[in-house]
Amino acid sequence: MVETGSLLRSLACLACGAEAPVDRPVGTCIRCGHTLLAQYDLGRLDVARWRDDLARRPPDLWRFRELLPVARTGSIVSLGEGCSPLLPLGPVPETPDLEVLLKDDGGLPTGSFKARGMAVAVSRAKELGLSQLFVPSAGNAGVALAAYGARAHLQVRVYLPERTPAAQRNACALYGAAVRAIPGTIREAGEAARREEEGRGSFDVSTLREPYRVEGKKTMGLEIFEQSSHDGGLPDAIVYPAGGGTGLVGMAKAFHELTELGLLHSTPRLYAVQPEGCAPLVRALESGAARVTPPTAPHTLAPGLLVPAPFASERVLDAVRSTRGGGVTVSDREILLAMRALAVRHGVSVSPEGAAPYAALGRLRERGLLRAGERVLLYNTGTGLAFSLDELERSAPD
φ, ψ for residue 274 (rounded to 5)? Predict the structure, then answer.
């Protein structure tokens, strides 16, 4: 079987220093229960040749295969994910002194950036011989797992909060996944999933509870680096809507590996944006806490941002702090206005989550976190086509 050239070496726990082998399915660290992250033998990569080869490879995330964990090409489960466009937005009235770009993952398979993580996690699951996967999800991750699970001929079960939009519930079922609706938020869905799956021989692909979804999210940073290299330079800052926060961990990991390879000499600052009604990561960043404290009554109209207790929040906070970044909150009303503005001003359809970075631009500029003349990238994590703006507006506070 053809090898991918993956340089995967081991799995490491940053919390306790333990390492785990890569030749068998592993979830979290068996010593302390924290997240395991993939480690690569970067010294073996011929960097100059790799950079030249990238230009000739197909336009998907597997172009970065040496820095991904799948060892054999026959294990790759793909729907053509990756290489989403980097769009100049032109003048933004709220921040006329910034150059604003938008990385648009709304056109990826299954309609969101979750395709990145699930493509890699499902491919690795297939390679390691797993047959049953499950995930608690606010919607998009469940859709992505259902689609990639179907592509790989694996059994999939998805646990969704009852308030998940019907379009996402229906999509999971259409792909053949078993769907369970759970009262509450994704926190309760996760508790129910792990309780019901115990002893079934299934594998949990929840955010940061397995080591490979973050490797798919890492391609966000790798793509930004590659696209920026021939399109005006790396952004000074990346503004990202944070729910579970895997994307922040992934991008920080990408920039760290690129630095080790000698390809990057300065790292974009990462800014996490969360809704006022559910902002555990932002509150921890503001207070200097090492981990989040869940809000007592979390609420927001953005399903993917209703994550009151992100798992392994220490890793997410470390990722942001390692780039000298920070966090900011926006209201649900501001998210709705940003969804409309991006559509009307710029012709871009974004989910409520994807609108949050645009909504945060003015506040970040006012606080001096973004500075005049800087190049700022907003990350849109999903399409807005699954959402009715009128229905969202009816559910938003006055």
Answer: -135, 155
Q: What is the DSSP string of 5-33?
A: ---EEEEEETTT--EE-SSS---S-TTT-
Q: Which residues does 205 contact at the CB level (< 8 Å), separation at least 6?
A: 118, 121, 122, 125, 133, 134, 135, 145, 213
Pick 114-204's CATH classification: 3.40.50.300, 3.40.50.1100, 1.25.40.10, 1.10.10.10: 3.40.50.1100
Token readout for 190 is 């996760």
Global confidence as pTM: 0.95
The pair phi, psi for residue 37, each rounded to 5°, is: -120, 140
Measure the CA–CA gap between 260 and 267, rounded to whole angstroms: 12
Token code pair at residue 381? 């994590």
Q: What's the mean pLDDT in 289-314?
A: 96
Judge contact between 27 and 204, C-beta under 8 A. yes
Task: Indicate if the pLDDT at residue 394 is higher than 70.
Answer: no
Return d(Cα 142, Cα 352) in angstroms, integer: 17
Q: Which CATH number fits domain 86-112+211-395: 2.40.260.10, 3.40.50.1100, 3.50.50.60, 3.40.1230.10?
A: 3.40.50.1100
For residue 1, how many other CB atoms are within 10 A of its CB? Answer: 8
pLDDT for res 387: 76
| Phi–psi pair at 143, nearest 5 degrees | -60, -45
Tell me which residue has tokens 């999210």.
217
Question: Cα separation of 292 and 187, whole Å?
Answer: 14
Exposed/middle/buried for 72, CB within 10 Å: 0-12, 13-18, 19+?
middle
* pLDDT tens per residue, range 322-339: 999 999 999 999 999 999
